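Subject: Interface between my chains keeps coming out wrong

I've been trying for a while to get a sensible model of this assembly. When I model each chain on its own everything looks fine, but I need the whole thing in one frame so I can look at the contacts. Pasting all components below, labels as-is. Any help appreciated, I'm running out of ideas.
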Amino acid sequence: MNPTLEIFSQGEEVVTGQIVDTNAAWLSEQAVTMGFTVTRHTAVGDKLDDLVTLLREISVRADCCVCTGGLGPTVDDLTSEAVAEAFDLPLEFDAVAFEQIKRFFTLRNRIMPESNRKQAMFPKGAERIDNAWGTAPGFSLQVGRCWFSFVPGVPKEMQHLFLETIRPTLASRFLLRPEKLVTIKTLGIGESAIQEIISAIEIPAQVQLGFRASPDDVQTKLLFPHDYPETAMNSLASKIAAALGDNVFAIDGFGPASGDLVFTVDQLMTSEKYTLALVETASQGLLAAKCVGLKWLLETRYEQSLERLGQKLGITINADDLWATAQAIASEIKQTGDADFVLVQLYAGDSQTFHDKDQAIILYNVLLTGDGFHRTTHSVAGPIKRKQNQSALLALDLLRRYLQHKEL
Amino acid sequence: MNPTLEIFSQGEEVVTGQIVDTNAAWLSEQAVTMGFTVTRHTAVGDKLDDLVTLLREISVRADCCVCTGGLGPTVDDLTSEAVAEAFDLPLEFDAVAFEQIKRFFTLRNRIMPESNRKQAMFPKGAERIDNAWGTAPGFSLQVGRCWFSFVPGVPKEMQHLFLETIRPTLASRFLLRPEKLVTIKTLGIGESAIQEIISAIEIPAQVQLGFRASPDDVQTKLLFPHDYPETAMNSLASKIAAALGDNVFAIDGFGPASGDLVFTVDQLMTSEKYTLALVETASQGLLAAKCVGLKWLLETRYEQSLERLGQKLGITINADDLWATAQAIASEIKQTGDADFVLVQLYAGDSQTFHDKDQAIILYNVLLTGDGFHRTTHSVAGPIKRKQNQSALLALDLLRRYLQHKEL
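Reply #2:
Try treating it as a single job with all components included. I did that and got this:
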């Protein structure tokens, strides 16, 4: 049995719905990867009684708990007081923490307000968690069954403290047997088509198969037991990836960590020193926006009227033959510009179709490279922002397929 | 005292962090607006014992609870069973629900799998919540102190069922005294500057003042008690909005509902039938992307090299005078294009500065309209994606200021 872990989020802004609690999901994913079973998330506001009650509940229920929020300098920040009251521990002044908090202000040429002093008060027996990322140090302590860690609720600070201090501590305090997760990321193929392809492959009963469709990709997840042999793991994952063919743009879980589609394309473009010019229609700037700051993207343009774009480029638009039109646009831009590749995205469908979530547009993507034209077509439906995002990704994915396979 | 409400989210995908629980925040905001005090969010996985324990806890602790998830047809969906076991209620077959579920499949030319039959089983005494948006009906029932409502976890279905069925029921079952919230939305001024300006205005003790800085705006929030006089409320909000001047782009809470900056600009551009051409640098397509599908945006272009853009437009680039350069670009595009307005965004700072989160770029926005040039400048710091987003918003905000005030 894995040790159990709970997440506890403190703050009126969470409990009243002013912010979405992304910390809980982030911490849970980390904890599951480490080998904990996450049993519960709880969020409460800044009321001392509610905090005390919850702390006592958790101390007899879970092996471990990570708590976010309530460590700031204001009167709303009650975590230390709540721990002290819940478990009958006196608060003690920590001179080292106080020096750190003062230094944070000195380094920024600011004077420390008197209210920050309370951030150096910890319940007796607590281990301090130093915080180089903000003013609030965290702390850990064992109460009853549970090892509690308290960190600030600011996501960036929380993540640093978890990765640098809490994770190593938990790894040494608990006997963990983490499962191994392989994630195969695809674009251009739906979840049910993937399931059908994979159904022909035999998957051992100990391996858990799952799927996750996000706005940016479809992920096939394979969860292996702690002691599953590495070679068998790699061979199964490779077999599935091979069956999914060039729809796969990245695999997470063995080898170097991968990222999203932009990351994959950036690696390929940068290593081969290619450059790109872009014409967007349905994605309306979003494809360029996703590539912000990347050196290989030289230009993009969006023109609402295809006629007008044709006039400006001096080419004839044939709305009945979008392949020919896209090729003509790409050739003209290649001739007059500096980019190695030109990627042109057009679509069939009027403004009404584009806006209507129940209608689909047909995308025509053309990529012009040194060895000619390459093309893909897709039907994209859903709300306008989904159409926009899918259009950006599917056009970029044509470039990715070319770079990875050089044959289409 | 307001009645208390808890949110209960069921699902392994929530508790293991595979998805962020946005339902809890959405429901909480709705409940707070109605006049409930939200006291707790809890998420647990698909284990019957955990569900039973939690349901019993909530039944003696809260006046009301909205539960999401666990109503699907698979073996993981245990909500009805858990309610039955927790409160010793038999499950009963609901023939009307069963007909609705069958009809959902018939309308889609699909055959209902046998497993969906369980979705028509409800604990004795429950009121069914019809679901026209999916296969899973919800249900409500009173147990102990608490009025429970159970709905599917799919956000769209959940939101429809809440707004159409649960909200009216809660409004009739509970004596609610909702507070009134006025939100003043600004761009181009920071939180501390706003606080300083407002500190000169006397705010009655019953009115709660709050601030919220998001990536897209800074919001000043005024929370008024239920019985606060309407005229006094409007007068205080107007006074604060006036003090913040043309930094205010929208006010929520009285009059017609407003939206984000794009919404405000869209209203103004559409009502005056203006059109716009755009040149983006730091926002790299994101400004156009935010305006997806809006008719008044005729074109955008992004060119990584300002030199190259100058060559293409046939104008001279003076990197030491970005105002003059931006004006020259705007004039050229106005002359050769169809748009009423041209908005040009340039920035000072090299690629290194743009990428470095600790360095700032200086934005130069120029808007060319029928009555000449208008301009704003801003310093923008932070990670590259923040710089990009702020640059998009601040350029668009120059257009908003012109449209709302026609004097800059």
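Reply #3:
Confirming on my end. The CA atoms of residues 169 and 214 of chain B lie 33 Å apart.
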